[in-house]
Amino acid sequence: MIYDISRLLNANTPTWPGDTPFSYDLTWSQEETGSVNVGQITTSCHTATHVDAPFHFKSNGMTIEQLPLDIFVGPALVVDVSTKGEITVNDFEDIDFTNVRRVLLKTETWTGDEFPTQIPIIDPELGPFLLENGIELLGVDLPSVDPLDSKTLDTHHSLLKSGVHILEGLRLSNVAPGEYRLTALPLNIEGADGSPVRAILEDDTQA
Question: Which UniProt keywords apply (predicted)?
Answer without folding.
Answer: Hydrolase, Metal-binding, Tryptophan catabolism, Zinc
